[in-house]
Amino acid sequence: MLIYNLLNRPIAVCTTxxxxxxxxxxxxxxxxxxxxxxxxxxxITVRVNYPxxxxxxxHQLVTLPIKKQLQLLNNLxxxxxISQDNQMLIKLRFNYGTDVQLAFIEVNEQIxxxxxxxxxxxERPMLIKANPGDIPVFVLNVFAKKEAGTxxxxxxEFLRISNFSEQVLRSRIEQLPEVAFVDISGLAKVE
Length: 191
Prior knowledge:
The protein is of the alpha+beta class. The protein is built from five helices and four strands; from the N terminus they run ααβαββαβα. α3 packs across α4.
């Protein structure tokens, strides 16, 4: 009976099919495409680069004061601190449901409060919000070729590679389409 009604009304059937195709094409063009869902992970990383200093010095001069100040944050669930040569990382994990933008502002305010007690020659700590879209898709390690018979690389070679990475590699990778962020760590700097 249904087939009989459809065969007797070809214009209505054609109009319905065309309108469904047009709606399908419009829906397909307006659907967002992403690999991961757009969710906010309640996690913020505080990163400090402090070249030419040992992990022990960084722990005493930088990590402890910042860690003590950041423990006062609202909705803080967990705090992990890692001090190593030339850098320090603190990962802050907040309770789910925490407004990450507000937590980011609070972390910034706490860092501002502790900046006076940190070494003057140190760069301001960098804050990074966790985002599923920021997961690195590509990691590039640059290193000098070790010459036979030498125990360590010479410092000018490290400086040359660091300058090349900072000035050439970073700028060329940032110019590529679809590249949002280039992060460089482990650079050697002259004081």
